[in-house]
């Protein structure tokens, strides 16, 4: 059955997303408002009965003076990725984006290829012979994901560059850590935590750490902790305007699309985190904390409250988002992986981001520019 592609309204786009169990928070219409330097467009695939059967949020980034654009579909599009005839989805997309002046297209199929349970990750961290998670035998492997990658190559798509030295790829993370909530009670979930996690949750409760939801006015408090975290963990912080735009854009679409949590002790905010929700999938998006009073375990407290709230909202997955795939003890990011592993969840590897060079010359020049940044 042939599909045609057309621009759809925000309401049409959101109605389609609302009819699904979930989709990436980067594929809802409001995400375009978070990225003001990009032009956003909602696209829909229409079947023979005039029904929307797939949707995409496309972000266009212009090349100065050339009138050409990078077309980016972060963690999308939202289509049937297991269709044997993938061309009927992607060929109309490429045709439309070429008409819009795209010189290259980048997308991230939201398809998991491999998973490693907590015990496997823990053993890999302890094994001096293991250097990267991707080299470790997975707990589960989805052959459909590998068939998808073969189809993409046959259609002319190229897998984007691999992970960098710290295990994170450019663009969206290829490796994430996820905690399943489906069919489990909060007690079941907590019993899945390791001993250290359960002890730290009890420590926080005994010390009197209180976790509350914040609002727009509390973003300044979050940002002060976030910049402290950036200096400690050696990453470049986003500007404060980014979080203000995110709050305004996402909560205007759905009041629960974005939440802010604060962990307080004796009137002092020690940790803060943002949580994003689309359908039955919840993401821990950004976290921040001070080095003061770490003994009262505010980070465990805030995560446990967010997990319980996600469960109460009917979420099936609590997603800790990106994680390193390095198992090198000298890498400071390994501590973050250990923290997430303590929840008893799973590390997951997506099929990664894929490029389609419409103009091979501009695509190569742009790739070189990114590699030198």
TrEMBL record:
The question of whether Acyltransferase is a record keyword is answered with: yes
Q: Which UniProt keywords apply?
A: Acyltransferase, Cell shape, Cell wall biogenesis/degradation, Peptidoglycan synthesis, Transferase
Instruction: Read off the Pfam families from this record.
Output: FemAB
Q: Which InterPro entries match?
A: Acyl_CoA_acyltransferase, FEMABX, PG_Glycine_Bridge_Synth
Instruction: Indicate yes or no for the key word Cell wall biogenesis/degradation.
Output: yes
Q: Which domain of life is it from?
A: Bacteria
Q: Which family does it belong to?
A: Belongs to the FemABX family.
Q: Which PANTHER family match?
A: LIPID II:GLYCINE GLYCYLTRANSFERASE
Q: What protein am I looking at? A: Peptidoglycan bridge formation glycyltransferase FemA/FemB family protein
Its lineage reads: Bacteria, Bacillati, Actinomycetota, Actinomycetes, Kitasatosporales
């Amino acid at each position: 059955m042939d599909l045609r592609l057309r621009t759809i309204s925000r309401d049409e786009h959101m109605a389609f997303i609302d009819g699904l169990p979930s989709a990436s928070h980067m594929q809802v219409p409001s995400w375009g408002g978070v990225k003001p330097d990009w032009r956003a467009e909602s696209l829909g695939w229409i079947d023979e009965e005039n029904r929307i059967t797939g949707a995409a949020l496309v972000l266009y980034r212009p090349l100065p003076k050339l009138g050409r654009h990078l077309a980016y579909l972060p963690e999308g599009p939202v289509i049937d990725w297991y269709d044997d005839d993938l061309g009927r989805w992607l060929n109309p997309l490429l045709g439309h984006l070429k008409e819009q002046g795209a010189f290259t297209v980048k997308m991230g199929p939201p398809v998991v290829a491999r998973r490693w349970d907590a015990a496997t990750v823990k053993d890999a961290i302890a094994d001096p012979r293991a250097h990267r998670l991707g080299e470790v035998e997975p707990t589960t492997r989805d052959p459909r994901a590998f068939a998808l990658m073969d189809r993409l190559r046959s259609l002319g798509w190229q897998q984007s560059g691999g992970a960098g030295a710290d295990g994170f790829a450019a663009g969206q993370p290829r490796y994430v850590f996820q905690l399943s909530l489906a069919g489990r009670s909060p007690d079941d979930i907590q019993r899945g935590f390791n001993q250290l996690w359960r002890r730290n949750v009890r420590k926080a409760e005994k010390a009197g750490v209180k976790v509350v939801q914040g609002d727009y006015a509390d973003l300044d408090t979050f940002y002060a902790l976030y910049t402290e975290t950036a200096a400690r963990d050696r990453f470049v912080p986003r500007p404060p305007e980014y979080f203000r735009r995110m709050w305004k854009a996402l909560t205007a679409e759905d009041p629960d699309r974005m939440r802010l949590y604060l962990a307080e002790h004796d009137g002092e905010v020690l940790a803060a985190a943002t949580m994003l929700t689309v359908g039955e999938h919840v993401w821990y998006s950004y976290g921040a904390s001070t080095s003061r009073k770490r003994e009262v375990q505010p980070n465990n407290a805030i995560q446990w409250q967010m997990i319980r709230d996600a469960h109460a909202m009917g979420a099936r997955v609590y997603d800790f988002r990106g994680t390193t795939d390095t198992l090198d003890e000298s890498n400071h990011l390994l501590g973050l992986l250990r923290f997430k592993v303590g929840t008893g969840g799973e590390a997951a590897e997506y099929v990664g981001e894929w490029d389609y060079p419409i103009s091979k010359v501009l695509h190569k020049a742009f790739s070189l520019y990114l590699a030198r940044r």
